[in-house]
Amino acid sequence: MKPTSSHQPASPTTHEAHGLRVGVVTSAYHAEICDALTQGACEAFKEAGGDCDTLIRVAAPGAFELVVISAALAARADVDAVVAIGCVLTGETSHDRFLCDAVAHGLAELSMRCGKPVGFGVLTCLTLEQARARAGGTKGNKGAEAMHAAIAATRTIQAIRADNPAIRAQEVLPAAWATGAKR
Fold it and tell me: In the structure, what pLDDT confidence band is assigned to residue 174 with cuts at 50, 70 and 90?
């Protein structure tokens, strides 16, 4: 499947999400943005062959709490991956930088610790207009992209753990990645 633009990854194939159980944790801050990102993630899951009724949707009070709530979901044996959704806007102080750094590092550490993908659907924008553009506007939907990444990473990890010698990069990764196309 070809990427929609040169800076976006290829989408997973149609049935790649079939049978997966994914948790989606959504921050309550900037609800308009986060709701659109969550909708994008849900639509991406469905388009990839997943059953939206199997998504575990959980609210987080804010972006900082995405880490601990995502950890609780990732600890469940019936969860294959988690997608964290949030939006942090630059303010008058440097608070946003500390917050974004903590969330990004926390989610990355969680993914490595639990061995499950944690899709990063957290916008870190200067303005509300930039966030809207990335929540279904002119720059796409980063919630959908986070879901695509979580699905693809889950399937790749499953293939690695299956230790199937017949697996080649073209079978595990979207075609654009396997051929070295720029993302």
Answer: low
